[in-house]
Amino acid sequence: MVSEALPFGQTSVTAVELRSHVDAAAATEALVAADVDHARERFDAVLETVPELLEWLSVHGREYPWRYTTDPWRVFATEILLQRTRGDAVAEIYNPFFSAFPTPNAVREADEADLRDLVRSLGFVNHRVRTLREAADLCVVENEGQVPTDLEALQRPWRVGPYTARACLLFAFQEPLALVDANTARITERVFGYPLPEQPHKSEAVYRFLDALVPDEPALARAFNLALLDLGALRCTNSNPDCSACPIQPSCLYGSVGEGLGVD
Ligand code: SF4
Predict the structure, then answer these.
(1) For residue 255, which of 139, 163, 241, 249 is within the disulfide window of CB 3.0 to 4.6 Å?
(2) What is the model's pTM?
(3) Is 150 one of the annotated active-site residues of the chain?
């Protein structure tokens, strides 16, 4: 059970075990379709370093409070609070928010002023309140008070896109799906030499590749996605990647170029 392995899921695995949980053929095919050089060799090399990546997560991963729950409403609402917002800011209001609004119905019945006061520190207050209200309506009016388990339905509230919907399915309902945001897209580009499209989070090709790379075992899928998110935030940053302290540096095209370790 994933819940027994919170906050990060399964962080200990061998490369051989991992290989039985990914769709290597589909992933390689997606790399070839994207014109990635030496697709199979690159995929194999990266897969060998994923166990180190998960081990790194177990030591350096960020232990946010929402990583200790699989409660669907907490997961869904938290992902809305995290939109365009730092995790540390959301962590500060996490307990007061869910004390006040432990269910979707509590948000539906809340005074506008109370809801606004609780999310004010995060900014984008109008956006946030509207999305939370619509998410609560979705659960209560359309789904008997429960968070939907359908990718399309989860994207019905205003400004809820594939990232938030997929994160909900992954973290609450243990569906082994890939998350595509700026961090995971940047790592994909650097590690594989993957030529990113203009909007990676809307690209079917990017999802096809990363969904094939995400392990089909839920606890591993959780760990793999969290590892990419945290690696992007803590090591593989946009402007200053810290390759010397990165667990997948030996297999990363970008990180190994300077040391002549790239696949020829
Ligand atoms: S080696 Fe460098 S570029 Fe590659 S994933 Fe790690 S931090 Fe990013």
Answers:
(1) 249
(2) 0.94
(3) no
